[in-house]
Amino acid sequence: MSKPSIPKGVRDFGPDKMVKRNFIFQTIKTVFQKFGFLPIETPTMENLSVLTGKYGDEGDQLIFKVLNSGDFLSGVTAENVDAGYKKLTPKIAEKGLRYDLTVPFARFVVMNRNEITFPFKRYQIQPVWRADRPQKGRYREFYQCDADVVGTNSLLCEAEIVLMIDEVLSNLKINDFTIKINNRKVLSGIAEAIGEHGKEAIICVAIDKLDKIGEDGVVKELKEKGISDCAIAELMPIIALDGDIWEKINRLKLILKNTAIGQAGLEELSKVFDYLKSFEIQHATLEFDVALARGLSYYTGCIFEVKVNNVQMGSISGGGRYDNLTGMFGLPDVSGVGFSFGVDRIYDVMEELQLFPTDQQTTTKVLIATFDEDAAKFALKLLQQLRQAGINSELYPESSKIKKQMSYADSKNIPFVVLIGSEEVSTQLLTLKNMTTGEQQKMTIDQVIDFLK
């Protein structure tokens, strides 16, 4: 018999972890709903024709392909195999696991455009899959919590994204974090200003790896992709600009003075930051990061990335505006903007910083422990009354020694135990024990319910 195992990059979650994960999910969901977003879900699998061509060449390679049912090699010829995997894949795999939630959302909008009201604000909390190399903070299966607005060009949506990020992380007690903001139009303008017009996608993919491979690695990749030495020499000081938000914007206005798209990007950024002056930011530090690129190819406007300070972890949230993602599915000129929380990374950050509230680790509030069979029968009525009152309750299901029942309550961090024996049955006065202090008191059923509520 083989030893059971799971693939690298995926994980099991026991009750203790799920309670914490659900705390994160509920915190995020509450804020999404507060800002007027509605829930949807899309299938685990999408047609590869939906997924491919939306994430760039590197992203396409990380899509998990699903082999066709039955004899998936039927009809495959030696010529197909010799032509390489890109030609072979469509013949043996028509579907793939979703890589993110944004592209399936764009497909959903196009297919349901006659039933939804624009601007359409949706949130979506589901797992995604990427055939990536597993490492700390990077998994092959992980949850995303997305919120997007489509059908409006208003930059107020970008400002509200910043507010939602700030509120969610503040509610999770993550108080030291930076929201980095840039604009793809600015990056296009930079590409134009350094004489590499039309190569902004190559430049974005390379500088998006700055944190991972360093400046030398970025320079090497740019050279390999055909960016000239002269252009690279101009680019690197630009993406390293320092100063506050407005100092960077003013300096870039001079650098990009001859590029209309670059000026448009700076104007959009200025408007977003102006909007944010009208709101109270709780804990976020806002930064205009000229080097922020976001590797996904569908972004066209403002882009975001969130990093927790003083924690060795990649970004925990990111997103941006996409002007024509639905156009790939036959519905052009529908602009959208959205972002996603990486729950798994948020979980790791909160574990490292010990931010999970201890009361969130308890799902059962009271255990009923009984001394004998008659007491167990008597307890059934109490169990029903407790649950009808909205109190999470359990009755220990077996006739066991009280010590064993109390150990069960301890192991599950159940804060209260109701003890029922022959005396409690005859007097109708129950013994309620506080498992933290050890204090015991006699109460009627109604008093127990009132106390626990």
Q: Which descriptors apply to this entry?
A:
alpha+beta, BirA Bifunctional Protein, domain 2, eight-stranded mixed beta sheet, Rossmann fold, 42% helix
Placed side by side, the strands forming the largest sheet appear as: 1-5-6-11-10-9-7-8
Number of domains: 2
Q: At the third CATH level, what is the topology name of the largest domain?
A: BirA Bifunctional Protein, domain 2
Question: How many DSSP helices?
Answer: 18
Structural class given helices, strands, pairing?
Answer: alpha+beta
In helices, the fraction of residues equals 40-55%
Q: Specify the CATH homologous superfamily of the largest domain.
A: Bira Bifunctional Protein, Domain 2
Shape: elongated
CATH architecture of the largest domain: 2-Layer Sandwich
For the record, the CATH class of the largest domain is: Alpha Beta
Q: What fraction of the residues are assigned to beta strands by DSSP?
A: 15-25%
Number of β-strand runs: 16
Provide the low-confidence segments as ranges: none
Q: State the major sheet.
A: 8 strands, mixed
In round numbers, the mean pLDDT is: 91
Over the alpha carbons, how many angstroms does the gyration radius reach?
28 Å
Cα distance, first to last residue?
A: 50 Å
